[in-house]
């Protein structure tokens, strides 16, 4: 009997050892490769050659980091950092954290624990893949996200579903969007601007933030100072070649008397600086344009294209609530509501997009916010406002717009129809100097700002004061 069992046991043991070694190689390829090379050099050439080789490698890496830190950080740092964090942070604590977080299940005395998958350390965050225990749901992990973040010494933990039974945890350690994102050079060619992919900033992963304008409406919500103006001017900045050529026409309403849109009114075809009759007339005019285009396109086109010869219309309404909710005149308020609802419900196909900016996203303020396909939550006052803007459950998945720092204007969480997961991004920082360049580019006339001179106050004991002629 032993003669029969012994070879089988030996084969099983060898296969098990090979499997375990393969797991180690897959999880720590760099560590295994370095260990094998060090052992081989020491065995073949001795300790002195090994020490000289290691010193040479250290010197080369040091020079690389000194001369080209960006490429060093891109090619050299990620793998060692990933293997170190997998072993020291996740591998050593995984079982204990799963048990204390109540994410382990027991059946008939056997413990079933979520399996730790691939780990990728990106500096500002760790991406940790997990295979859930059968019977678990992502919502259970979302409830424990805060505890997981503290357990693994992270600032926050976001839960993302990859496939049935598989999750990816984003354990964030620092904010990659803490610095303002400067506006790029103005595009010179109209062909470089795609209304389906307008670049307005940068996502936290370092990729361009591309916003869809054609076939959608955009609603941006945030408290005063959250950076809604940054988003507005970033969109205008990206559309400049089309604005100058007449392929895009801007219309604007700024109930604050022009404090925002008045910074560069020359780029707008029409702009109104209040929420009164002129603003309502502009809304009704655009609503009529929507219906007129729809009747002309009927039977010929399903959606607007540049070949129609009609300009794409972007309607910018700063402080949308002032126009449709806070207007004291009931007749004007109702007319504004009807016009905006007509534009948002019917304007996508005829080539009209509404960019609405406001602070209060409650239903009693904007009852038709579901008509905005793209919604952006910038810094909010309350947790509930995040779900009001982006949809139920997004806050549990990590979209914590209410925790955005007041020192990072322009940062927000964006959610597009058709995408389950929201993403975090920051709009370009468009300065007053940039706006002057913008106006000059569109109009061809240099902008000359008036100089503010200090008024000379009279000295003590002097009679009167003023500027001598």
Q: Describe it for me?
A:
- The protein is α/β, with parallel strands linked by helices.
- It has three domains: 52 residues, no CATH class; 93 residues, Threonyl-tRNA Synthetase, Chain A, domain 2; 263 residues, P-loop containing nucleotide triphosphate hydrolases (Rossmann fold).
- It is 40% helix and 19% strand.
- The longest helix has 26 residues.
Summarize the structure.
Helix content is 40%, strand content 19%. It is α/β, with parallel strands linked by helices. The strands form three sheets. Strands 7, 8, 9, 10, 11, 12, 13, 14, 15, 16 and 17 form an eleven-stranded mixed β-sheet that branches.
Q: Which regions are unreliable across 5 or more consecutive residues at pLDDT < 50?
A: 463-469
Helix content: 25-40%
The total of helices stands at 14
Structural class: alpha/beta
CATH architecture of the largest domain: 3-Layer(aba) Sandwich
Q: Tell me the Rg in angstroms.
A: 30 Å
Name of the CATH superfamily of the largest domain: P-loop containing nucleotide triphosphate hydrolases
- Strand element count: 17
């Amino acid at each position: 009997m032993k003669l029969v069992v012994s070879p089988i046991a030996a084969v099983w043991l060898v296969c098990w050892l090979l499997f375990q070694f393969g797991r180690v190689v897959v999880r720590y390829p760099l560590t295994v490769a370095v260990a094998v090379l060090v052992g081989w050099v020491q065995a073949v050439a001795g300790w002195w050659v090994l020490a000289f080789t290691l010193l040479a490698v250290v010197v080369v890496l040091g020079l690389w980091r000194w001369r080209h830190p960006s490429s060093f950080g891109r090619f050299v740092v990620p793998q060692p950092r990933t293997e170190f964090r997998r072993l020291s942070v996740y591998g050593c604590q995984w079982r204990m954290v799963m048990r204390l977080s109540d994410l382990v299940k027991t059946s008939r005395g056997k413990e079933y624990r979520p399996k730790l998958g691939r780990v990728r350390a990106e500096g500002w965050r760790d991406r940790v893949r997990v295979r859930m225990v059968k019977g678990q749901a992502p919502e259970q992990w979302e409830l424990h996200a805060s505890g997981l973040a503290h357990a693994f010494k992270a600032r926050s933990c976001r839960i993302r579903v990859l496939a049935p039974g598989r999750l990816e945890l984003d354990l964030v350690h620092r904010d990659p969007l803490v610095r303002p994102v400067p506006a790029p050079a103005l595009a010179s060619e109209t062909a470089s601007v795609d209304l389906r992919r307008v670049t307005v900033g940068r996502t936290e992963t370092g990729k361009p933030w591309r916003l869809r304008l054609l076939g959608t409406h955009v609603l941006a919500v945030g408290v005063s100072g959250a950076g809604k103006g940054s988003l507005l001017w970033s969109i205008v900045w990206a559309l400049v070649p089309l604005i100058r050529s007449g392929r895009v026409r801007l219309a604007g309403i700024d109930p604050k008397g022009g404090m925002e849109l008045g910074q560069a009114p020359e780029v707008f075809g029409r702009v109104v600086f209040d929420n009164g009759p002129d603003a309502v007339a502009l809304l009704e005019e655009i609503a009529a344009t929507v219906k007129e285009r729809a009747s002309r396109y009927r039977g010929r086109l399903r959606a607007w294209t540049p070949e129609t010869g009609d300009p794409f219309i972007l309607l910018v309404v700063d402080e949308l609530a002032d126009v449709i909710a806070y207007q004291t005149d009931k007749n004007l308020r109702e007319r504004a509501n009807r016009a905006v609802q007509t534009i948002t419900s019917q304007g996508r196909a005829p080539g009209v997009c509404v960019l609405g900016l406001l602070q209060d996203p409650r239903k009693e303020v904007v009852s038709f916010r579901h008509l905005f396909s793209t919604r952006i939550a910038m810094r909010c006052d309350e947790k509930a406002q995040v779900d009001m803007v982006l949809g139920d459950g997004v806050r549990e998945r990590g979209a914590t717009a209410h925790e955005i720092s007041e020192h990072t204007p322009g940062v927000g969480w964006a959610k597009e129809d058709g995408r389950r997961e929201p993403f975090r991004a920051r709009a370009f920082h468009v300065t007053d100097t940039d706006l002057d360049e913008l106006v000059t580019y569109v109009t061809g006339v240099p902008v000359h700002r008036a100089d503010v001179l200090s008024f000379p106050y009279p000295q003590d004991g002097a009679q009167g004061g003023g500027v001598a002629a």
